[in-house]
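Can you make up a protein sequence with its backbone structure tokens?

===
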Amino acid sequence: MTDFERRAEFQPAEADGQERIPWHLARYRAHVAMCGHHIEPGSQVRPLADVDEPSLEPCCTTCWEWWSTVRLVGEPRGE
């Protein structure tokens, strides 16, 4: 399933100065996440291989629920 990657959603820093970057799941180089959220072209990207690693980073619940389903039934085919 190499056709997907983790993409960061741009948000300004919080009042406490800490950045909180929600991560989405998108097709490789896509600008729309699986949840429908628009992803900025210059957003941070992380390999999908990191998905199974424990993380304290906020993630889009809709994207990750979609990913859990895909992992159970197999990768969707775009035709």
User: Anything to note?
Assistant: The first strand starts at residue 4 and ends at 8.
